[in-house]
Structures are given as structure tokens and as C-alpha cells.
Amino acid sequence: MAETKEPLVRLEGLCKSYDTQVAVERFDLSIAKGEFVVLLGPSGSGKTTVLSMLGGFTEPSEGRVLIEGADVTALPPAKRPTATVFQDYALFPHMSVRANVGFGLAMRKVSRVARDIRADEVLKLVGLEGFGSRRVHQLSGGQRQRVALARAIAVKPAVLLLDEPLGALDLALRRQMQEELVHIQKRLGTSFVHVTHDQEEAMSVADKIVVMNKGRVEDRGTPSRIYRRPASLFTATFMGENNILPAKLVARSGDELTVETALGRFLLVGGEDASALQPGAALHVALRPEQIFPAATAPEDAVPLGAAILTELVFQGTHWRAHAKAGGKGALDLLLRLPPDLAPAAGEALDILARPQDMTVLTR
Description:
The protein is of the alpha+beta class.
């Protein structure tokens, strides 16, 4: 039997309350060595509080933080095998880039020669070779972000914590830095825990996404699973655009569910949460805009959803973003992504189809 590896990080039952306000409630998470984990959620969801408890900046009201098998719950940040990159970078303007990068090593009493060598190594890693003698004010926003990242990497943490580190960058630079973060993380083999409210950023960098809402975990899994098979109504609507169809359970046989919607009756596969449902139960079905096809481009295993009347169209290069009315008397609003060469027109009636395997049953 293969030996099960102990997770690098274990967060057990973390709770944080401020007077009567609960910021985080019963948060559990295991992080493997070399894993890139993203805590994703809207403002106030508790994601930054979790990161702060992991880094030692906030004391949990309950629960434990274990890193490399050791309970570090009571240890201050400087005593933990972690390093943090903040959104505002927190660089020292009176120091050179090299001195900024070596600051954590200086606090660990590493010699000047050794820390300068290490600083130059990590500056090369983040694409700033030859920048060591420059001052912070001589750098662009993206370069400052890389210096902050280099400073955190220099101390060789077991876990690198990133608190919305790309939030201050413009869109093009943010996308570039997302790719570079993944490249650096894979080269280092260090576990990264990254906080963001940007769904696209989360899917671009993560091995695992933890979706948070009101201090609780809504969902966790790979980016593909979270996007294609969300576990809750919140996740389905937070992770990009989605069509949410009110539905009623007509019959259930094992994990096969017959559900009735405004677009028709479908035989779908439900998850574990659906096992206790009884006929007549109210639920929802999620269907992504790109999973709805016009008849001309529908796959063979797609089933008809009826006709949709196009009401609004915006050309976005790779597709037409279309709003439509469907269902009985056009009572259901749908969002579609139509092929760019379709040349649709507002007011046009379009026969639409979808594959049952693309429909996700939501019970909560």
C-alpha cells in the first residue's frame, strides 16, 4: 500500500470573531507541498482573515494552524516558515533593490556577502537581473511587485502567502504576472497561498480553488471542476456568467434525476447533495452561456431547449454576447455566447440546444 503523505499545511477548525461579528467560521484546509492554492471570494468573505491567521498576523478565536507537522498557532510571523507578499509591496524607499530583497535575511543574521548573493539569485529568478543597485522610486509598478516577491522568496519559506499581490497592476501587466507567478512557483516547488477576488486570476494560477462566502467555504476543487461543476448556487453565479434555471424534481433513481424547467424536462446526474431529495423538491440547474448552442453548431448529443428571441447583441471578437428570451411566453432571460460568424440580429428567433451532461444540478 502506498504511503499517504502528510499535508504541508493543515488548518483545523479555524474561527475568527470580532465581538459579535463572525469573520471566519469552522475553516478546514489541507495544502500539499508544491501546491498553488487560491482563496477566492468577494470582499468580506473571510479570505484575507484566513491568510492572516496562516501567516501569524491574526490570532484565531478557535482552531489550529499546523505547518510541516508542527503546531504554529501561537507563533508570531517571524517564527513561522512563511513569507508574505502584500498588495502595497511594503518596500523600503531608502534601500537599494538588493537591500530590500535581502532584508529578511538580514533579520536572520545572514552575512552581507551571503545575502547579496542570494538576493541576486532571486532577482534573476523574477526577471530583474542587474537591478540590485537601483532604488525603489526608479522602478515601475510591475517591477516593484517582483521585488516584493523576490524578498519573500529569498528566505526560502515553506509556504509563500500572497495577499492580492496583483491588485494594483493594470490589466495587461496583471495577466503577464499571473503567468510569471505560476512559472516561478513551479520552478521553486514552494506551496503558494494566494488571495484574490478575481475569478479569472484564480483560474489562471491555481491548482486548487477555495471559494469563500460570509466566512464559510462554499466550494473547493480544481479550477475546471469549480467552473464546470459548481457545488452551490453561490459558486455558480460568482464563478463567471451563468444561466440559473429554476427547476423541480420530478423523479429520482439513484443519482439520476428527472427535472422540469422552463426549457423542458431533462434526465440529469445529481451529486451527493441530491441523494436525499424527494419528488417535488425545488432546485436549480446551471448552464453556462457557452454551453448553449444554436441549431447550426450544436453537437449530436445536444437536446432542444426550444426557441430563444434575441434581444441584445454585443460583438466581442471571439463570440457574440447575446441576451435572449426563452421558455413559455419568453419568461426566462438567457445569456448566450454565439459563434462570431453567425451574424445574428436582434428580434431573431433562434432554435437553441444543450447537452444534458453540461447541466449542473444545484441543491443549495
